[in-house]
Design goal:
Layout (H helix, E strand, L loop, with lengths): L3 E6 L3 H12 L3 E7 L14 E2 L2 H5 L5 E4 L6 H10 L3 E5 L6 H14 L3 E4 L6 H11 L6 E11 L9 H17 L3 E9 L9 E8 L4 E7 L1 E13 L2 E6 L4 E7 L7 H4 L6 E6 L7 H13 L9 H20 L3 E2 L2
Helix pairs in contact: 3-4, 4-9, 5-6, 6-9
Length: 329
């Protein structure tokens, strides 16, 4: 069987990493790239370089990775669907819910595979966390908290911190817990003099009454990427910067000192940091999408899931403006 013919549009900071992985995975040939701004990082390396998606489609491709700015996702994605080409589209899926739904419909109508590049889903710590939650190791889930903070990346110009960064946490929260967002409340701040928000604090409700809290900003001088799940048997902490997963168990030692025992519901127990394999998340994402295109079982972030993420993002923005909980069911 011949290799899949892949193309890449968008050769910026993220595009170059997509190119590296497309060139490395088995069963795929990166045959052409495209970017209206040229090739600033030398990604093409002898491959045909086109200025737009129309030129890229002339190469007879099986699928395309879209790493162009969010504002162009709808236009590019609709052209790929019309041409019958599968697509892996970087997150967020689109700039608006309406645009995201158009992409969902276009790919569904053509029977094409479409996926969204929510790379955190493929982080080894979160994949191990989902497996352990599914196995019931935490028992009943009470709360999931995410913290995604760090300096502003000057390359992001067309969306705020909610759609660029909080979108990661929205997807991973729903995926790790296998719950759906129902209610969304948020507060935002604008401190960097840009059109879009650079800080958000959100409190949400997921199915089954699960509470989630998300703190995301571009205003912190050091990077933090944590996912914390608290439940009946203790707490999991996933650090996606280091791909480490740690479990903090509730204590099993009886407190016999009455003056202390009466104030304690949960006590400190054993702490375990799991030794897990740590493949590159982007590599796993590409291999998973390749398998989906080949018709193999693959846990891709579907366009429908990507559209739901955009809906929750917009609910956060609306909540901050209206001071109301927003129902996203």
């Amino acid at each position: 069987m011949s290799n899949l013919r892949a193309g890449l549009i968008g050769l910026g900071m993220m595009g170059r990493h997509h190119a590296r992985n497309l060139k490395a995975i088995d069963g795929v040939d990166l045959v052409a790239v495209a970017d209206a701004q040229g090739d600033p990082h030398g990604v093409a390396s002898g491959l045909p370089l086109h200025p737009d998606v129309d030129g890229l489609l002339s190469e007879g491709l099986d699928y395309v990775v879209v790493a162009a700015p969010t504002m162009y996702h709808e236009e590019i994605g609709l052209k790929l669907a019309e041409a019958g080409v599968h697509a892996l589209i970087e997150k967020p899926l689109a700039k608006t819910v309406e645009a995201a739904q158009k992409l969902v419909g276009a790919f569904a109508d053509k029977g094409l595979i479409g996926a969204v590049g929510h790379i955190e889903r493929y982080n080894p710590a979160l994949q191990e966390l989902r497996r352990r939650l599914e196995a019931g190791e935490l028992g009943d889930l009470y709360q999931i908290t995410t913290r995604r903070q760090g300096p502003f990346p000057a390359r992001i110009a067309d969306v705020g911190v909610i759609k660029d960064l909080a979108s990661h946490d929205i997807d991973l929260t729903a995926w790790v817990t296998q719950r759906d967002f129902e209610l969304v409340a948020a507060r935002t701040m604008f401190k960097a003099g840009r059109e879009y928000e650079d800080m958000v604090s959100a409190t949400c409700q997921l199915t089954g009454g699960l509470m989630s809290n998300h703190l995301v900003n571009w205003l912190t001088p050091t990077k933090e990427r944590l996912t914390i799940v608290t439940g009946e048997k203790g707490m999991f902490v996933a650090d996606t910067l280091t791909a480490d997963l740690t479990f903090y168990a509730n204590g099993r030692v009886e407190t016999t000192w009455d003056d202390i025992a009466q104030f304690r519901g949960v006590t400190e127990g054993d702490v375990t940091r799991f030794a897990i394999a740590k493949p590159e998340p982007l590599r796993t994402e590409h291999e998973t999408f390749r398998d989906a295109v080949l018709g193999k079982p693959a846990d891709i972030v579907t366009l429908e899931q990507g559209a739901k993420v955009v809906q929750v993002c917009e609910a956060m923005i609306e909540s901050a403006a209206s001071n109301q909980f927003i129902d996203v069911r």
